[in-house]
């Protein structure tokens, strides 16, 4: 029976379930999925946890990833993903939306919305994607205060501290900051924008016993590695944060081009999810069965011919 409305709602908090996945020896693989439909499709492929990217949420709203979206914007996305999939999600918390009190507010809002984990980064506003140039870093003390505030506010939420220091302060700076954030209460560390296999290996070697998150984003500074390769390098988690949005946006661009070129969508049908496939994904008939007043929908077999 699929997860529908109140069926099979997990009894345990998302943070507890996320931590259990993280404690397994196998690397935790989390594709980006910031929309309900994306969460369902990822779950269908067997993923046990999901990632919600601030860049993906911003782009969906037609905005750049410059720290412009709000706690409420993100909480709305969390609620729909958790409602749709019932999976624990790791959420991009950017810089925490302010100082310590703002971080505490964010943690409470995200956890109440159903998040299992959040990561905070040590950039200053206006923040940038971690793979871009000239990022401005907060002091290690200021970031540590945010981590401590997040730890104080959480009930079960897993707190991951991200450091962008490798680009400007080198490996020594990134490791020193990471240790400072662990001392402040972080459960795991996210070293962002490492550029070589050697850097990933060295960071892991210098953080023995620490749960580490790797970011496998496209068109960035990190070479392509597989989940198995990251695990071999000492990483406990890997995300593909915006891959789903890149594929979907390219497909939408192609569709709109086809309509302007061909006067309709007739040449794009083979690239579309069918109505029957969509209804299966969103459990359309399972929802219908919950309301006896609804007559079961009969899905058209195909399109009529002219």
From TrEMBL:
It catalyses: (2S,3R)-3-hydroxybutane-1,2,3-tricarboxylate = pyruvate + succinate. Keywords: Lyase, Magnesium, Metal-binding. Its EC number is 4.1.3.30. GO terms for biological process: propionate catabolic process, 2-methylcitrate cycle. InterPro entries: ICL/PEPM, Isocitrate_lyase_ph_CS, PrpB, Pyrv/PenolPyrv_kinase-like_dom, Pyrv_kinase-like_dom_sf. Pathway: Organic acid metabolism; propanoate degradation. The keyword Metal-binding applies. GO terms for molecular function: metal ion binding; methylisocitrate lyase activity. Catalyzes the thermodynamically favored C-C bond cleavage of (2R,3S)-2-methylisocitrate to yield pyruvate and succinate. Involved in the catabolism of short chain fatty acids (SCFA) via the 2-methylcitrate cycle I (propionate degradation route). Catalyzes the thermodynamically favored C-C bond cleavage of (2R,3S)-2-methylisocitrate to yield pyruvate and succinate via an alpha-carboxy-carbanion intermediate. Homotetramer; dimer of dimers. Belongs to the isocitrate lyase/PEP mutase superfamily. Methylisocitrate lyase family. This is Methylisocitrate lyase.
